[in-house]
Amino acid sequence: MLLTYLKRFYFPVFVTIAIFVYVAQQTAIDLPLLVNNYLNDLLCMPIVLKICQYLVRQFKSDRGLQIPITLALTLTVLYALYFELLLPKFNVRYTADTIDVLLYFAGALFFIGIERYGAGKTSVLEPYKDL
């Protein structure tokens, strides 16, 4: 039962948290160090992969379609290379950090676990069907 709720609501909760952290950072609100430096890295891949899955489901008209595990992990590798290897060389805003890479993969594994092995199949839009 808990997995069913988690599967239905993690995406809007993660997006809300990520937006809050981003806005807090942009408005110079002090956040705990771990939240400021690492939380959005953990939330990144579940958000990105859920959006990708939703878009593919819409394009293919298949509400049950799942992103293959290899594709999810490949996207995670590409994100890690781009944000932790390439961007730090060109933009001082970005720093290379091994912990960020681990958090990207932890987020991807969360997505894979919830979406592929979570309790019951539900649509990404299931919680909003009555709106």
Give an account of the 3D structure:
The chain is mostly helical and 131 residues long. The protein is 73% helix and 0% strand. The chain has four helices and no strands. It has helices at 2-26, 33-60, 69-90, 98-117. Helix 3 (69-90) packs antiparallel against helix 4. The radius of gyration is 16 Å and the shape is globular. Mean pLDDT is 89; it is low at 122-131.
What is the secondary structure topology, with strand pairs?
Blueprint: H1 2-26, H2 33-60, H3 69-90, H4 98-117
Helix pairs in contact: 1-2, 2-4, 3-4
Characteristic key phrases:
73% helix, mainly alpha, 131 residues, globular, 4 helices
Portion in beta strands: under 5%
How many H/I helical runs?
4
* Mean model confidence by pLDDT: 89
Distance between the termini: 23 Å
Percentage of residues in helical conformation: over 70%
Low-confidence stretches: 122-131
Structural class: mainly alpha
Q: Count all strands and give the number.
A: 0
Summarize the structure.
This protein is mainly α and 131 residues long. It contains four helices and no strands.
